[in-house]
Hints:
Radius of gyration: 16 Å
Amino acid sequence: MTNLQLLREPNIIPTTKIIAKALGSANNAYAKFTKQLQSHNIQTNWRYYNDGKAWLGKGLYKWTSTRGTAKETTAFWLSIWDGFFKITIYIPEKYRADALNLSLNNEMRKIIEDAKQIGKLKFFPLTFDLCSDILFDEIFTLIDFRKTLK
């Protein structure tokens, strides 16, 4: 896998066909990931960001509050790279211990333990380069956990 981020043209909206071409053999895993998102009530909204000069997918969990207000939480960020896709989940630092108590394998616990807080922000990023569905169970456990942190 090279570290070449794709989808950098602001005028070329990322369609299923464009993403499939960029991902190559990793597209099967991406298709499975996006299909699984539906069962977790998450929509991916694509937008071109000028600061990074690339299209990013924002995984949004939407719900209605007890007062009837429409709410949303960003569950993850998604980017497309040459032959793989990248998922980043930002967990608030104050919930690190709760994240470590999730049903995760030891490798994932180590990633959470070692993740560094970003500057003055009170979050730590968990970033995964995916070209297969091997980590999907752990990633969806983390995504579901992130959804609960409103």
